[in-house]
TrEMBL record:
Residues of the Flagellin C-terminal domain: 219-292
Organism of provenance: Paenibacillus albus
Top-level taxon in the UniProt lineage: Bacteria
Protein's name according to its UniProt entry: Flagellar hook-associated protein FlgL
Keywords associated with the record: Bacterial flagellum, Cell projection, Cilium, Flagellum
Subcellular localization(s) per the UniProt record: Bacterial flagellum
Pfam family, one: Flagellin_N
InterPro entries: Flagell_FlgL, Flagellin, Flagellin_C, Flagellin_N
Length: 302
């Protein structure tokens, strides 16, 4: 028994086809105007999960990049101020050597003492260096001045600085300490080569004309200079590692962005072709529909 096809059924079929074509055109135009092939979760339920994952990883990667930049700035600043401390120490060594050669009258030793006193003040300024409002040589108590001369009974060689690490997270489970304590650079109170203790002895010896006593401190000066040089070398090694981490994070950002683009972004060339094809199909369906539907009784009455 054959199925009887009525004009009503033909109208309904035509309406369904036209509606489907319009819906497809709307979807293509939506992708063309937004530039994305996923505009709502229903467009690609699996793709949207990857998209969200890529966005989360990109956000985390961006924060790690900011942390790495901050770590690099801290280490660069440390390298600069430790280099300045090394230059000051070199000048102190030259003055001590000059003053302890046994040929200087007292007034010359007093002049040398004046300069060494100024250099000691310069070292204190360096030891209190601040970056972005933080004292870089006072560990985790970076909000407090480590060598505060306004404190009653202040004695630079007796200062104990905080030893806590200042660390930056530069990757998943990767943290990098960037700071050095003041005691690591300038010496602990018990160290014989504590730079402030050595300077006090040199100044005292020159003030009393004891040139051999000042000369005896040259060894301590040299050991402290070597320790400052080692500290600078350690900073340089950390700078190299941070730069490697920055390169790695930059590469990861490129990879994640590429994968996100492949998941979310529309293929314009393909969309333009599909859109034109769909437009032609829609026009054809309208044309064919107008011819297929038989005239109604009303048409005859006209």
């Amino acid at each position: 028994m054959s199925l009887r096809v009525t004009p009503s059924m033909m109208h309904m079929q035509l309406s369904r086809n036209l509606s489907r074509n319009l819906k497809q055109m709307d979807s293509l135009q939506d992708q063309l105007t937004t530039g994305r092939k996923i505009n709502k979760p229903s467009d690609d339920p699996v793709g949207i999960t990857y998209s969200l994952r890529y966005r989360t990883e990109l956000a985390s990667n961006g924060q790690y990049q900011k942390n790495a930049d901050s770590a690099h700035s801290w280490l660069d600043f440390n390298d600069t101020v430790i280099g300045q401390a090394g230059d000051v120490m070199q000048r102190i060594k030259e003055l001590t050597t000059q003053g302890s050669n046994g040929t200087n009258p007292q007034y010359a030793l007093d002049n040398i003492n004046n300069e060494i006193s100024q250099l000691k003040s310069q070292l204190l300024d360096i030891a209190n260096s601040k970056l972005n409002g933080k004292y870089v040589f006072n560990g985790q108590t970076f909000d407090k001045m480590p060598y505060d001369e306004s404190v009653a009974g202040f004695d630079a060689k007796q200062v104990v600085t905080d030893t806590g690490d200042v660390s930056y997270a530069v990757g998943v489970g990767v943290t990098l300490p960037v700071n050095l304590s003041g005691n690591e650079v300038f010496g602990k109170p018990a160290d014989t080569d504590n730079v402030f203790a050595v300077l006090d002895k040199i100044i005292s010896n020159f003030a009393s004309g004891n040139q051999s006593g000042a000369a005896a401190q040259l060894t301590n000066l040299e050991t402290r200079m070597n320790k400052i040089l080692n500290a600078r070398s350690e900073v340089g090694a950390k700078v190299n590692r941070v730069e490697l981490m920055q390169n790695r994070l930059d590469d990861l950002e490129i990879n994640l962005t590429d994968m996100q683009s492949k998941t979310e972004d529309a293929d314009f060339d393909k969309l333009l072709i599909d859109s034109k094809i769909n437009e032609n199909i829609y026009q054809a369906s309208l044309s064919v529909g107008a011819k297929v539907i038989t005239p109604t009784l009303v048409d005859f009455l006209h």
